[in-house]
Write a structure and sequence with these properties.
Strand order of the largest sheet: 1-5-4-3-6-7-9-8-2
Order of helices and strands: EEHHHEHEHEEHEHHEE
Helix content: 25-40%
Number of strands: 9
Number of helices: 8
Oligomer: single chain
Structural class: alpha/beta
Strand content: 15-25%
CATH superfamily: Vaccinia Virus protein VP39
Distance between the termini: 33 Å
Length: 255
């Protein structure tokens, strides 16, 4: 069982109420006018420090959020389901954090499959390693890598949850992920977006409450969904949690 984080030679250039759904549409996530007090996204070193400090309490804070309707377990399960993985497949989890996606992925690839979790922060990966060890999974590899420079191995499915918009070089990450997908493979991204119907004061409050996890008002300028739609064929899109999140699933053309 390989659970100890493996540090890459490059530094990481990243971190870390359902509304509607579409299948294969060309819709874009709705966007609100950014508040005039927008602040810039965090730099890489700042994100690394933030998540090192919060790694131990990350899962606890997530459980607290769930008390207020944050259905992340359900959304992670849905994202994994859209990957259409089969036993024996390989799944990649980009910016895997503490491994909250692993149960849903493991249920689909089974012990004969493989899960590769990649993240910025050694402390977050250590928590993921504890999760893997407790579950007794023998097919999980954890890597501390720079996603912008890392070349992913071939995979049947790739997932990234609550992280891609924090990555400064998200365009490169999407392109490399698409290149790694096997024909017919899918990429599922659950990520942040600017809620179209939230008043500016509520947007500011949401950013302030989540600033400790890298969320800033300046993230509105980042549009990972545009790169995904240029690179792969969209098969599913939906907005979640009052329009503050979206789930986008896209597929690589079969050979």
């Amino acid at each position: 069982m390989r659970v100890a984080p493996v540090r890459g030679t490059e530094r990481y250039a990243a971190t870390r109420g359902d509304r509607h759904a579409t299948g294969g549409s060309a819709r874009e996530p709705t966007a609100a006018r950014p508040p005039h007090t927008a602040d810039p996204p965090f730099a890489t070193a700042e994100l690394r420090d933030l998540y090192r400090k919060r790694a131990r309490a990350y899962d606890l804070v997530t459980r607290i959020y769930r008390r207020f309707g944050f259905r992340d377990t359900h959304w992670r399960e849905r994202a994994a389901g859209w990957l259409a993985l089969e036993p024996g497949n390989t799944a990649l989890d980009l910016a895997c954090g503490t491994g909250l996606n692993f149960p849903a992925l493991q249920a689909r690839v089974g012990p004969s499959g493989r899960i590769v979790g990649v993240d910025l922060t050694d402390a977050m990966l250590a928590r993921a390693g504890h999760r893997v060890a407790r579950a007794g999974w023998q097919n999980v590899t954890l890597l501390e890598e720079d996603l912008a420079h890392w070349s992913p191995p071939p995979a049947h499915g790739i997932v990234s949850t609550l992280a891609l918009s924090l990555v400064a070089s998200y365009e490169r990450v999407v392109e490399r992920a698409a290149a790694a997908l096997l024909p017919g493979g899918r990429l599922a991204v659950l990520d942040l977006k600017l809620p179209a119907r939230w008043p500016p004061w509520l947007v500011r409050m949401g950013a302030r409450l989540n600033r400790g996890y890298g969320v800033t008002l300046g993230l509105h300028a980042r549009e990972p969904w545009m790169v995904i739609r240029r690179t792969l064929r969209e098969v599913h899109y939906e907005e979640l949690f009052g329009g503050s999140l979206y789930l986008l699933v896209a597929e690589k053309d079969p050979a």
